[in-house]
Design a protein that fits this description.
Elements lengths: L1 H5 L5 H5 L2 H17 L7 H27 L4 H51 L1 H18 L5 H16 L7 E2 H19 L4 E7 L6 E2 L4 H12 L8 E8 L3 E9 L14 H13 L4 E8 L2 E9 L2
Parallel strand pairs: 2-4
Antiparallel strand pairs: 1-3, 4-5, 5-7, 6-7
């Protein structure tokens, strides 16, 4: 380009047909086409500009043919013309590719933010359900004048702090999530009595591991909802947690007893649907949920790859 400018007074033809000038023209035309011309609504308006660009490219091809051969050779000019058209479209597609790449990045970022919002919304749906069950437990204890009511309220206070503070995060420490479940089970044990067949066993080390908050509690809530809605000696809930370096296996089993008329609900399944949606958002292709109903026993097994 510098050489072309220096020799401009004597060699204007060289300047106009230099590689730098040619590529500048191709880039400008491609830029105008992509950002302006093709966005016009009028057909003839767009066509007029496109024809103008074609004339400019044709003139550039004729000038280059004249510069090289000192005469215009139509066949050679046509070769230059097709070459210039090809380069113009190449620049056009490069601009299109860069813009689509930027759009794709913005789309992925928007999708990520939307998934975060969806996850938070699904987590928030747990709060009213949990509160409803917890206050029912407190109500039952208050009717019995249970001496453990204050301790239960204290436990519930700690759980509410977890719900309002920690659960707002994308991930929480697994040890805190399991502590939350342990407190929940402790409240249920107080509610149903020390003789209730409720077991909670953890195998493995939960230190240093993180998990999406309030996922596991959904299976626990579901078990108590269907395994202990009446006080029956055959009712049971068993929860086993197995933790390895890369995964957690969460197994919940509960008895299925005959429903009483006051326990029928049209909300059955909402919690599990919530769980499935959140697993798809937070652990796509990294989880396995198996739900089985066999011999009056409901079994829910969730396996999550934590890595």
């Amino acid at each position: 380009m510098k050489k072309a400018i220096i020799t401009l007074p004597d060699k204007w033809l060289f300047f106009l047909t230099s590689d730098a000038m040619e590529y500048s023209v191709f880039t400008i035309i491609a830029y105008l086409l992509y950002y302006y011309i093709l966005k016009f609504k009028g057909f003839w308006y767009k066509t007029s500009f496109i024809m103008l660009f074609i004339v400019v490219i044709a003139l550039l091809a004729l000038l280059k043919s004249y510069r090289i051969h000192n005469v215009i050779i139509l066949d050679r000019s046509f070769d230059f013309f097709t070459e210039f058209i090809g380069k113009t479209f190449l620049f056009y597609f490069l601009i299109n590719f860069v813009n689509r790449l930027d759009f794709f990045n913005r789309y992925k970022n928007l999708e990520h933010q939307l998934n975060l919002a969806k996850g938070q919304l699904l987590r928030n749906q747990l709060h009213p359900h949990f509160l409803f069950n917890a206050f029912n437990s407190l109500y039952s204890m208050s009717l019995k004048n249970s001496v453990e009511t204050p301790d239960t309220i204290l436990k519930l206070s700690g759980m509410m702090r977890y719900l309002t503070d920690d659960s707002a995060n994308k991930k929480v420490k697994l040890i805190h999530e399991l502590k939350f479940i342990e407190e929940y089970i402790a409240i249920e044990k107080i509610r149903f009595g020390t003789q209730a067949n409720i077991k909670f066993l953890i195998q493995g080390n939960s230190e240093g591991k993180n998990i999406e908050p309030l996922l596991l509690i959904i299976l626990v809530e579901n078990a108590f909802k269907h395994g202990f809605y009446i006080n029956d000696k055959n009712a049971f809930v068993t929860i086993n947690v197995s933790i390895t370096d890369q995964r957690i296996l969460f197994l919940v089993e509960n008895s299925i007893l005959d429903k009483q008329y006051f326990n029928t609900t049209n909300r059955e399944g909402k919690g599990l649907d919530n769980l499935k949606k959140r697993l798809q958002l937070s652990y796509p292709k990294k989880h396995k949920l198996v739900l089985q109903h066999r011999n009056d026993i409901y079994r829910a097994q969730l396996e999550i790859n934590l890595v």
